[in-house]
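README, section 4: Worked example with a bound small molecule

Sections 1 through 3 covered apo chains. Here we extend the same pipeline to holo records, where the ligand is supplied as SMILES alongside the sequence. The molecule in this example is SN-glycerol-3-phosphate. Nothing else about the input changes; the structure line simply encodes the ligand pose together with the chain.
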Amino acid sequence: MASLSSYSKKHKVTVVGSGNWGSTIAKIVAENTKEHPELFEEKVQMWVYEEDITLPKDSKYYDSSNDGPQKLTTLINKHHENVKYLPNITLPSNLIANPSVEDAVANSSILIFNLPHQFIARICKQLEGKILPFARGISCIKGVEVTSSEISLFSEWIGEGLGIYCGALSGANIANEIAAEKWSETTIAYDPPPVDSRAATPTVSPGASQINLTITPADEEHRDVLGRVSKIKLKALPSDYPPLDHAVFKTLFHRPYFHVRVVSDVAGVSLGGALKNIVALAAGFVDGRGWGDNAKAAVMRVGLLEMVQFGKEFFGKTVNTGTFTEESCGVADLITSCSGGRNFRCAKMAVERGVSVEEVEASELNGQKLQGTSTAKEVNSFLLARGKVDDYPLFKAVIDILEGKNTVDDIPDLLSRQID
Ligand SMILES: NC(=O)c1ccc[n+]([C@@H]2O[C@H](COP(=O)([O-])OP(=O)(O)OC[C@H]3O[C@@H](n4cnc5c(N)ncnc54)[C@H](O)[C@@H]3O)[C@@H](O)[C@H]2O)c1
Ligand SMILES: O=P(O)(O)OC[C@H](O)CO
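The generated complex, written as structure tokens:
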């Protein structure tokens, strides 16, 4: 490999999303782009779903001469703080909030997708044809994409939609703790298909300042995690950029307070982050009912087994069971989510107050979004379509409690096969 100083281009990084976790990850990568000018452009773009914010009188940024609604992007760029989704955390000054997603991604070779999963479809549609064809992505989204009887990982789904390779980042990562720079770890999965540079065909796109290479994978077809022939025709990174490998992604995300392990099991990393949110709801239900830590540990144990079973049954070609049991994105994320995560906390409050989880989400989260409720529904519709719903009694109990078909008191009976 050439020395880093011999590359004439640097990677431009864009974070698509600016919620609680989106802003935290943007803070991390902006700190790293500043520290590594040999690899990255210093400025990081962060796409913000624009909204009007009226600062309360007790806000440190309140200005009586300008007390009407202000754009969230204006506030972030002026005060270097996401006052709505990550208050009281100073963001680096090289992080730029941008209300236009098309403008934010322009010329970026690294795209980090980090927004609640219910919004990603519309954003990807907007991005079609707007990104560099050789860009690479990392999805920080915890959820799965389900259509009728098909299921896919957001990393794959984004990759196929945009024609790029996309890896995944997931771990025991409660955003507020990491934003406060408390010590933690995460898992990144990055495993692009092999490319054969001998099969490269130079093409020049109109207006492009460089030659793009269309690469045919060495084995002529790349299969996704479900064994389907991938629709992605991967474009090689032009040789004037530093190569995008495990080391570069570690450099982009690793901080003294945020340690990164890079693996290749994209399915395991993505599924851990998606499915633990269903289990966290169950943990909140039993805790809210006052059954204590032993009951919570029991649903966590059964939940972990169902997560592994789901991975092996539907993604068995590539998924590594060890990812669930050994990495931050597996059992560690399950533990933190069932201790202090939003899904856990909202489910607990819902039971204590006798209201729905959605009502607690709306009243307590100030616009932040739960992923567990929609993931429980999506996984249930997938399992129903496959005739497998009864093989996953904890996942079924959670959706049935959310939909009012069962109550928390039914959990011991519903899990009797797993417990007795
Ligand atoms: N918050 C955490 O602790 C945490 C940690 C790890 C992973 N995650 C995962 O990261 C992903 C993003 O979570 P988050 O915490 O950044 O989001 P969040 O829960 O803070 O959600 C709010 C975000 O959604 C945006 N939004 C609202 N309506 C929208 C719309 N119509 N279109 C597009 N965007 C809209 C808001 O602008 C805001 O940026 C999720 O999949 C989540 O599971 C979250
Ligand atoms: O707050 P939650 O429940 O969305 O979970 C946050 C993170 O995923 C924990 O790793």
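What to look for in the output: DSSP finds 17 helices and 15 strands in the chain. The two ends are 58 Å apart (CA to CA).

Section 5 describes how to batch many such records.
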